[in-house]
Amino acid sequence: MTSEPLVTATALIGATTGLMSLLGGLYFWGYKWGKLETMVKLLWEIDVEDSLRRQRRAGLIEEHSKRRVSQRVYDILATAKLDPLVQAKIALAREKLTALSKRADLPQSDGELAHEIIFSLGLENVKEISAALEETVQGWVSIVVVWVREQQEQGA
Questions:
Q1: Secondary structure class of 66 (helix, strand, coil)
Q2: Do 80 and 111 form a contact (C-beta atoms < 8 A)?
Q3: What is the pLDDT of residues 40-56, one digit of tens each?
C-alpha cells in the first residue's frame, strides 16, 4: 500500500513532462519554424538578387527599363561545345521554362521564381547545365529568371 502514492506521483510527473514536451514541440513548429522559414526565404532572395547584379556586371543581363538576357548569353549557348546529353537537357529545360512562363500564377518574387525553376527542372539538371556552361548555379538560375520574365512579357 505504501507504493501506491509513489506510482501516482510517478504517473503525474510523467504526464506533466509529456505535456511540456508536447507544448515545446508545438511552440517550435508554430513559432520558431515560421521564423526559420522566413529567414531562409530572405537569404534566398538576397542570393538571387546578388547573382542578378553580378550577371548584369558581367554583361549577361541588360537592364534598360526592364531586365533582358543579353545577346552574349545566346552567343555562348550557340558556340559552346557541349556534350549531346547536356544539349538535350538544355532543350528540355527550355521547353519546361517556356511552359512555366505561360503560367498565370507565376511568382512575383525573383527568389520564389528561382525556387520554382529549380523545382521544375530538378536540382541535378540545373547543376549539370550550369557546370557545362561554366557558370555557378545561382548565376545560371538568375539568367533563367530574367529569361522566363522576358518570355512572360512577350506572351502577354
A1: coil
A2: no
A3: 677 777 777 777 777 77
